[in-house]
Design a protein that fits this description.
The chain is of the alpha+beta class and about 130 residues long. It has four helices and six strands; from the N terminus they run H-E-E-E-E-H-H-E-E-H.
Length: about 130
């Protein structure tokens, strides 16, 4: 994956500024009206950050369940607390709606952090 030349862009209040959108349009990840921000790992549409497409989310969840079937252990105690704190401090953490989610993969962070078989898609709390 190519690194975004505008990696210092930071969305504010879940939105990109018009200037940031214009810079992102210069990036190679443009696809029609969809803009994939390769640094933040989110789709940007109409100046709003959105989750990955539902098909991508389904694929990610299916992979997670497959790994979960092989390893049914859960993180507990301090390890779970540490992982969740790292997750909550991440720019991809999204806490709106019923359950907190990751804007990068679309997964429910409550499950992803609890399941020992799972890793952070951005490599922030991988323990293996």
């Amino acid at each position: 994956m190519n690194k975004c030349p505008y990696f210092n862009l930071q969305p504010t209040a879940e939105k990109f500024t018009v200037e940031q959108i214009e810079l992102c349009k210069k990036c190679l990840w443009i696809s029609g009206k969809k803009i994939w921000c390769c640094h933040w790992g989110v789709w940007v549409r109409e100046n709003k950050i959105v989750m990955p497409p539902i098909g991508t989310q389904a694929k990610n969840f299916t992979k997670a369940v497959g790994k979960r079937i092989k390893n049914r252990k859960n993180r507990t105690g301090k390890e779970l607390e540490r992982v969740r704190e790292i997750c909550k401090s991440c720019e991809a953490y999204y806490e709106k709606g019923i359950l907190p989610r990751c804007k990068h993969c679309g997964c429910c962070t409550a499950l992803k952090t609890k399941w020992e078989s799972e890793d952070c898609p951005l490599g922030k709390w991988n323990l293996k």
